[in-house]
Amino acid sequence: MNAFPPLPIYTGFNTPLRMEVDIHDLEVEGQVPEGLDGIFYRVGPDPQYPPRLGNDIYFNGDGMVSAFRFEKGRVDLKCRYARTDKFLLERDARKALFGAYRNPFFDDPAVEGRIRGTANTNVVYHAGKLLALKEDSPPLVMDPWTLETRGYYDYEGVLTSETFTAHPKLDPHTGEMIAFGYSAKGIASPDVAYYVIDRDGKIVHEVWFQMPYPCLVHDFGVTRDYVVFPIVPVISSLDFARAGRPTFGWDASKDVYLGVLPRRGSAKDLRWFRTSNLFASHVMNAFNDGTKIHFDTPVAKGNMFPFFPDVTGAPFDPVAATAHVTRWSVDYAGGEGIGFEQLTTLAGEFPRIDDRYAMEAYRHGYICVSDRSRPYDEKRAGSITGMFINCLGHIDHATGSSDDVYYVGPVSSLQEPAFIPASKDAPEGEGYLVALANRYDEQRSDLLVLDAQRLQEGPIATIKLPLKLRNGLHGNWVPVEDLPPRPAGA
Ligand SMILES: [Fe+2]
Q1: Which of 99, 272, 277, 337 has the lowest tally of Cβ within 10 angstroms?
Q2: pLDDT tens for residues 300-315?
Q3: Using 50, 70 and 90 to split pLDDT, how confident is the model at 387?
Q4: How much distance in Å is there from the Cα of 452 to the middle of ligand 1?
């Protein structure tokens, strides 16, 4: 028996692709801007084998990396599995050996102590290396042109954390990568390791500290002068793991903290700011004006992750899970309170920016929007993760407007976009958004290219795929001038 169970996460549009493809010159409707020269990388879960325990959460699938190569108005596609240790061990065994999401207690004993990561969350290019990332593991290096896996990477033995965030931040001015690992000494440990990695890929600064309680720290904020760690009570516990429930659970009784550290500070410089319970996950951007630090992220009243259920057994509340981009403000030299300002009426998650303006005051933000007031075919296009995305929105922080919104239609949904500048020196926000659209009626995907300041006009190019790419997580645009020369035959 080698069959996926007939569950929503393995059937219909979510049927694992399990296919590595090369397609030269995808069909294009409209016009891909001729000047776009680079690769849009994205990654998502695509399980190689049926789940060992008969079920799993969607986010535990093996990482499948897609590379869309843009050149002279044409687009080629390459998809390759991130060949993690898990992937290779299971391929050899011809079955799943790892049991549950970030829970080693139900694994085949043959894989005890092996790196459990799936490299399915983000794909980031830094210092000549394409890194496929999962926050429970070290980075997995892949070739940026061939997508061949080179293996896990510990920065020449300098990476001391067992884990490495899937949301490192690239400093557009210094070329540094700012990163951290949480659960840095193992599952449910309260330890965080913070790293500055220079433009050449060398770890040049490291700080260890402990969180107020062990929890999921999926993303963080970086400004010119500070790093900001949001501590939100998606708590983690080895007891949960041993009991066979997800290692993470939502605890509405706990406070929320922001840990703020000067970028080159030490553990004694870490300051904690505190507020009452709320939910936040992804970060749009962060910046500071002197000691005043601003941190922009979608905020919801309650848990947005139904796959990590409430620790009291309370049911998932989709209304409380509605998030709005909100600015948190603290003063590193002031009191421990946090100020809040909601920045938009658009409800959504997966925020993006023009990454050339990361870490500083910025004008343009983009967000995946859930708008249930628009026509929506719940039966065909319904969400399996508790979120659905049917619009892309532009938040103009200068005018306060969120009026420019693209709606994808009733039988489609969208994946996270990435921003591509029109040119290296184009003003902030002048460029394009690329985003995958899931076409549920055709069981197929399109990659859409939209003018980032005229979203409501719809795609200027629709790049048509003859296959579907399951819902992924994150991706990034890398201009060709940042990549190594293309090897012959790649
Ligand atoms: Fe993420």
Answers
A1: 337
A2: 999 999 889 999 999 9
A3: low
A4: 22
pTM equals: 0.97
Question: Confidence band (pLDDT; 50, 70, 90) for 488?
Answer: confident
Q: In the numeric block, which tokens belong to residue 391?
A: 């619009």
pLDDT tens digits, one per residue of 468-482 = 999 999 999 999 999
Q: Compute, in angstroms, the gap from residue 239 CA to the centroid of ligand 1.
A: 25
CA of 281 to the centre of ligand 1 (A): 8
Ligand 1 centroid from CA 196, angstroms: 20
- Name the residue ranges covered by the structural domains of the chain: 167-343
Q: What is the Å distance from ligand 1's center to 379 Cα?
A: 26
Q: Each residue of 285-318: b (16+ CB within 10 Å) or e?
A: bbbbeeeebbbbbbbbebbbbbbbbbbeeeebeb
* Contact of 25 with 69, CB cutoff 8 Å: no
Say how far apart CA 163 and CA 179 lie, in whole Å.
10
- C-alpha 473 – ligand 1 centre gap (Å): 6
Structure tokens at 277: 């319970």
Q: How far is CA 315 from CA 90, 300, 304, 308, 309, in A?
A: 35, 16, 12, 11, 8
Distance, CA 252 to ligand 1 centroid (Å)?
21
Give 387's Cβ-side CA count (13 Å radius).
23
Find the length of the chain. 490
pLDDT bracket for residue 384 (50, 70, 90): low
Residue 191 phi/psi, 5-degree rounding, is: -90, 140
Question: Which tens digit of pLDDT belongs to each residue from 422-480?
Answer: 999 999 999 999 999 999 999 999 999 999 999 999 999 999 999 999 999 999 999 99
Q: Which residue has the tokens 């009426």?
A: 345
Sequence-ordered list of residues with C-beta below 8 angstroms from that of 24, at least 6 positions apart, any chain: 76
Percent of the chain with pLDDT over 70: 99
Q: What separation in Å is there between the alpha carbon of 474 and the centre of ligand 1?
A: 6
- What is the whole-number distance in angstroms between the Cα of residue 101 and the centre of ligand 1? 16
pLDDT tier for residue 166 given thresholds of 50, 70 and 90: very high
Distance 236 CA to ligand 1 centre (A): 17
